[in-house]
Amino acid sequence: MKKILALLSFALVFAFSSCIEQNYVTWQGAVVEFQDAVVRTPVAGTANPAYPRITVANTVGSINLQVNLVAAQRTSDETITYKVVPEGTTAVAGTDFAVSGSLVIPANSSFGTLTMNIPNTGAIGGAVDVLLELEGNAQIPASQNYKRVQIRITRPNPPAGS
């Protein structure tokens, strides 16, 4: 009798636990975000949204920043725009850096690359900053939390006695 009750109990538990319908909510939106904003710690005291700072030397030539498409991949190229935010920028466009203002996420891809050219301004000392902000396009807005990244360009000090 104990074996029958044990088997019946097991059968009831199995029957009621195996047929539970799961209704998972699936997000259907789309946004773009900087990979560095997702994985790096934001700079303390930055405005909302907080953003990370990436430090590079003025001798680097260029840097590439990965931009993520958080959505289903598109069947055609998506052009994403971005801007330089004056409030977080001390560098001079054309002298300290050059950017185009847009990037392309290729068809059937989840990633695009923003390339910033950094000319060698020589040994003049100090550092300058460039704050970049994704804007997106008509169909794909920028993520409110991960749309900004600041690039700090360091310049070596001039030789002593110059």
Automatic annotation (TrEMBL):
Look up the domain of life of the source. Answer: Bacteria
Q: Does the keyword Signal apply?
A: yes
- Keyword field: Signal
UniProt cross-references to InterPro entries, sorted A to Z: CalX-like_sf
Which residues are the signal sequence here? Answer: 1-20
Carries keyword Signal?
yes
PROSITE patterns reported in the protein's UniProt record = PROKAR_LIPOPROTEIN
**Protein known as:** DUF4843 domain-containing protein
Q: Tell me the organism.
A: Mariniradius sediminis
